[in-house]
Amino acid sequence: MLYHLYEINHAAIAPWRSAVEAGSAYWANTGNPLAETVFGRSAAASLHLAERLTRRYGKPEFGIISTEIAGKSVAVHQKTIWQLPFCNLLHFSKEGGHKQQKLLIVAAMSGHYATLLRNTVEALLPSHDVYVTDWADARNVPLATGSFDLDDYTDYIINMLHHLGEPAHVMAVCQPSVPVMAAVSLMSERDDPLAPKSMILMGGPIDTRRNPTSVNKMAEGKGVDWFRNNVIMSVPFPLPGMGRMVYPGFLQLTGFMTMNLDRHMAAHRDLFWHLVEGDGDNAEKHNDFYDEYMSVMDLTAEFYLQTVDRVFVHHDLPNGTYAYRGTRVKPETITKTALLTIEGEKDDISGAGQTEAAHILLKNLASGKKEHHLQMGVGHYGVFSGSRFRKDVVPVVNRFITGNSA
Description:
Layout: H1 2-12, H2 14-28, H3 38-53, E1 66-69, E2 72-84, E3 87-94, E4 102-106, H4 118-124, E5 129-135, H5 150-163, E6 169-173, H6 177-189, E7 198-202, H7 214-230, E8 233-234, E9 245-247, H8 249-259, H9 261-277, H10 280-293, E10 299-300, H11 301-313, H12 316-319, E11 323-324, E12 327-328, E13 338-344, H13 358-361, E14 370-375, H14 387-403
Parallel strand pairs: 4-5, 4-6, 6-7, 7-13, 13-14
Antiparallel strand pairs: 1-2, 2-3, 3-5, 8-9, 9-10, 11-12
């Protein structure tokens, strides 16, 4: 019912939003003699904030058209090279026939779109042949298409690694660390010739009993039945996925916002004053960040609930009980795929130590093929985005991939 009310609310305020947009255009119009007064700029800023806070944010674009290799600008073309109902595989191909190691970046299916990794892709493009998982918004996938759970997610990863046609490197950012490890374990156990050369896990919940965060404690404290009864909803008419049971993206966004509500309120207050003072650069930075942050997608109920139950409540992977279609997954079978784990010192979503736990599970992997990097001074997003990521983390990733490419 809440999802239906959410959609009705968006429809109900549409006329009001039109009035706000018209008012914003009026006060921002340079032909208006009051536009450059403090009153005019304040009115325009207020209406701008009102429009942004009531906007339905759509799926962003990566918008990457070039990269720099050896000091020269190289054109980049984004192509969809593989697809199934719940995911497209994107390839950021570079002109000029550059022969580089293939890197599959598995984006999180945790409420935001893969474009949250735009900075990650941009930083790794100069040195690698980059592919990215573009997960679908479950509310746009017709119910007749079928379900999508944690095992299906693992299947998708294996299928994509096969589609690349040669052993690649795989990078899991946050949530996919568990299914990526499951996929690599299965491929290793089967002696799959296309098992990846290396596996890079970044800020992922391998063992959430270590240094548990408020997110971990909430999941374990409430249990999966609470989530099933309180956050799972049916996609309303007339959306393509009508009738599908999902964890709505707007609930995930609400959770993220309330975790740091004071910070978000301060950011929007600052935006107001940036607009009043004519500080376009800082206003644009704010808008760019929140355009991405406010763009959310729905997750299928079965995938979301299995993740809560198996990863956050019962800790199946570190307990040795994680199963794929009824058969136990065996990380100890990984003996050839090198492992790099990366964590942020101040990560408040996947606490430091949770990803590093992967080294214990890969007990038969030689120590020379294991590496851990703790990035000081960054939180969750700083693990894969931002200035410290580009300066400190990217060189570690590049060196690790180069050293494990034979």
